[in-house]
TrEMBL record:
Keywords: Methyltransferase, S-adenosyl-L-methionine, Transferase. PROSITE patterns: SAM_OMT_II. The keyword Methyltransferase applies. PANTHER family: O-METHYLTRANSFERASE CICE, PUTATIVE (AFU_ORTHOLOGUE AFUA_4G14580)-RELATED. InterPro entries: COMT-like, COMT_C, SAM-dependent_MTases_sf, WH-like_DNA-bd_sf, WH_DNA-bd_sf. This is O-methyltransferase C-terminal domain-containing protein. Residues 78-208 form the O-methyltransferase C-terminal domain.
Length: 208
């Protein structure tokens, strides 16, 4: 088996960039008195929510730096921007392009490692759902010469994928749309990478 790629060179910079968010999340739970509950022993997220009045889903994953998130369970994006994140990006093509490039940077060597480690035997047609500009799908196609792929994402994102000089390769097509309305039908497998964490439980069920 081939040697897995080395860790991403950008990891230290990413850690620094994310540390502000982690510090803010820690502040939010401290301010709410949640840490004061824990010396008596570990508590599950539902128990903490029950004792503090926080929203159970928010307690399950305190990944957002906004105190409002603890009460509502909403993403911190809505209080900050007044609209859901992907709607916000959709209306701002430069920020969207920057976000899509960031996705490629943040995952670093992950697509090649996933492509190497995964067995796509028996799959002829693979759809990359919410596949961004197609970095993972391209890596999987390169590692599996018998496979063809379709990149599926929102229209602006797919436009950027089309303009990507690295391209998606000859065995690929693109399709645009929203995964809450449906995905391209008839493929043998559907690939989701870094997608479901953006949505709540009910939305994840719909996507899956
Ligand atoms: C966090 S990014 C992950 C991108 C890529 N899969 C990766 O691993 O880098 C989430 C992706 O979901 C896409 N997305 C968000 N809402 C969508 C929707 N309703 N339908 C299809 N794609 C959507 C975004 O445009 C974005 O490319």
């Amino acid at each position: 088996m081939a040697t897995p790629p080395a860790g991403p060179v950008q990891a230290p910079a990413l850690q620094l960039a994310m540390s502000g968010l982690l510090a803010r999340a820690l502040f939010s739970v401290t301010e709410r008195g949640i840490l004061d509950l824990l010396p008596e022993g570990p508590l599950g997220s539902a128990e903490i929510a029950g004792k503090t009045g926080a929203h159970p889903a928010a307690m399950h994953q305190v990944a957002d730096p906004f105190p409002e998130t603890l009460d509502t369970g909403w993403s911190g994006v809505e209080p900050a921007f007044g609209e859901p994140w992907f709607e916000h990006l959709h209306a701002r093509s430069e920020q969207a392009a920057s976000f899509n490039r960031m996705m490629v940077g943040i995952h670093g060597t992950e697509p090649a490692a996933v492509a190497q480690a995964s067995d796509f035997t028996g799959i002829g047609h693979l759809v990359g759902v919410g596949g961004g500009i197609g970095t993972l799908l391209r890596a999987v196609l390169e590692a599996n010469p018998g496979l063809r792929g379709t990149l599926f994402d929102l229209p602006g994102v797919v436009d950027q994928a089309r303009e990507n000089p690295a391209g998606l390769g000859e065995r690929s097509a693109v399709a645009t749309g929203g995964f809450f309305d449906g995905v391209p039908a008839g493929a043998d497998a559907y690939l989701l990478s870094h997608v479901v964490h953006d949505w709540d439980e009910a939305e994840c069920r719909t996507i899956l």
